[in-house]
Amino acid sequence: MTKVFVTGASGFIAKHILRELLEKGYDVRASIRSDKRKDELQGLFPDAKLEFATLDLTKDEGWQDALQGCDVLMHTASPFPAGEPKDPEELIRPAVDGTLRAMRAARDAGIKRVILTSSCAAIYKQSDKPKMTPSDETYWTSPDDPSVGAYEASKTLAEKAAWEFVAETPDIALTTINPGAVFGPPMDSRFGTSLELVEQLMTGKVPMAPPMDMVAVDVRDVARMHVSAIELETTKGERFAAASGTHNFLQLGNFLKDWDAGLKTPGREAPVWLLRIMGLFSKDVKAVLGNVGRTLAVSGSKAEKTFGFQFVPVKDALIASAEAVKTHKLEKESA
């Protein structure tokens, strides 16, 4: 039986990957950062024979032993912040070094198949591409471009490091899955940055919509792509955008408002002049300005053709997130 090693196993995407793997009969060893996360996963999959390894992306300890006996590395772990850090290296170093640490351990364990979770953020900001031209997997974000934030740079540099590694290690077949913003239903009440954005759109924390668009996808499609890639020969040596569609923030807010008229979604876009003033004092607002006047659209057609499915519409994925956020809020209020 094929054994898959999943890093960052307590993450939003990774939990769906675990469910998909277990349902398809794979043996799974999951990396976690603490026993608390182990209890969390065992609670989600009480009948599964999950193995665990406690690892840190920033430390060498344990990696070599953890991957022994595994056939596939599925590397999902990477820092995903809610805002821009003071120092971009706070994100870049763990992302790049953690990827290489996992890849080296896979090589030393004799693993021949690696599936890496990258991001559309590693695709959509190639500096010499016309700003309003949609991107596809042939494009690469330019990490040194002034419009590129720390997260975008970290995902780009980490993915490039992985491709450079396998270029020197031809025994390993690499596939990268590059999701846009990931919506959809979380598997428990602990959800991360992607769904925090949905909550902000629902509750009035975003009074005016940023004048930018966003490429998005359903988490269930992302998980399906990761697991299907293990056996699908045509995915080897390829990168795939997990991208259902692209909408601006005002449209996302309208999707939510149509679903629940009582939500405090933004009713208009923030004027650029106001953002420029606010950007003098806020790194997060300054990062938004880097997305004004360009599209972050990425085509998902290659993935649909290769994997043989159609992406869940962004609106459906967004509403599934909103339902979870609303349920979580009611549970907290009644506790």
From TrEMBL:
Residues 4-238 form the NAD-dependent epimerase/dehydratase domain. InterPro entries: Epimerase_deHydtase, NAD(P)-bd_dom_sf, NAD(P)_dehydrat-like. CDD domains: AR_SDR_e. One of its GO terms (molecular function) is oxidoreductase activity, acting on the CH-OH group of donors, NAD or NADP as acceptor. Coiled coil: none annotated. Its EC number is 5.1.3.2. Keywords: Isomerase, Oxidoreductase. Belongs to the NAD(P)-dependent epimerase/dehydratase family. Dihydroflavonol-4-reductase subfamily. This is UDP-glucose 4-epimerase. It comes from Boseongicola aestuarii. The gene is galE_1.
